[in-house]
Write a structure and sequence with these properties.
Distance between the termini: 49 Å
CATH topology: Jelly Rolls
Organism: Pseudomonas cavernae
Protein name: Cupin domain-containing protein
Order of helices and strands: EEEEHEEEEEE
Largest sheet: 5 strands, antiparallel
Strand content: 35-45%
Strand order of the largest sheet: 3-4-10-5-8
Structural class: mainly beta
CATH architecture: Sandwich
Helix content: under 10%
Radius of gyration: 17 Å
Number of strands: 10
Pfam families: Cupin_2
CATH superfamily: Jelly Rolls
CATH class: Mainly Beta
InterPro entries: Cupin_2, OryJ/VirC-like, RmlC-like_jellyroll, RmlC_Cupin_sf
Number of domains: 1
Shape: globular
């Protein structure tokens, strides 16, 4: 599915206008993870300025994980898990591609527990299409189109046991992780 990103702003006289409209770069399928896609829709700094016109690029500059107070919007399509059971699936190549296309996030995935990761962010996840399962340390929850998840830096993984892709929009708000005592 092609997604168009429309960005509004102001012209020189202060009138609202469309400053950019076009295909969402980076939304194409990953090469080594068939059916999976993840595109950065937009990122903001910890104290964004409405007048800022960030460079629109396919890849984030340093990390998709925002600094505390910053934000990242991600559009992610999860294919059915069965696609990863193919004998042609190469987990090492898939992990490398994830790190390349989603810097700062790909490195957080656990090698011994595929799919599990934790970010220093508050995440709002909205199921746009399909169904998906959120796995946590001790439980899981099945989500359907229209469901919204709010995660506070929890260790988790996404699983799609169904036969159709699931498409989610995530908004990550960078946060500080408190130090654990004792």
């Amino acid at each position: 599915m092609t997604t168009t990103r429309i960005v509004t702003g102001h012209d020189s006289s202060g009138s609202s206008t469309i400053i950019s409209s076009g295909s969402l770069a980076g939304a194409e399928e990953f090469t080594h993870s068939p059916g999976f896609s993840a595109a950065v829709v937009w990122q903001t700094s910890p104290v964004p300025d409405i007048a800022d016109r960030p460079k629109l690029s396919e890849h984030p500059a340093r990390s998709v994980i925002p600094a505390p107070g910053g934000t990242t919007a991600l559009l992610v399509t999860f294919p059915p898990d069965s696609l990863f059971a193919s004998p042609d699936f190469d987990p090492a190549a898939a992990a490398g591609e994830l790190c390349e296309r989603l810097p700062g996030l790909g490195e957080l995935f656990e090698a011994d527990n595929p799919g599990f990761h934790r970010t220093d962010s508050i995440d709002y996840g909205i199921v746009l299409e399909g169904e998906i399962t959120l796995e946590l340390d001790q439980q899981s929850h099945h989500l359907r189109q229209g469901d919204i998840v709010v995660q506070g830096g929890t260790r988790h993984a996404w699983r799609n046991p169904g036969s159709k892709p699931a498409r989610l929009l995530f908004v990550l708000v960078g946060a500080n992780r408190p130090e654990r005592s004792g």
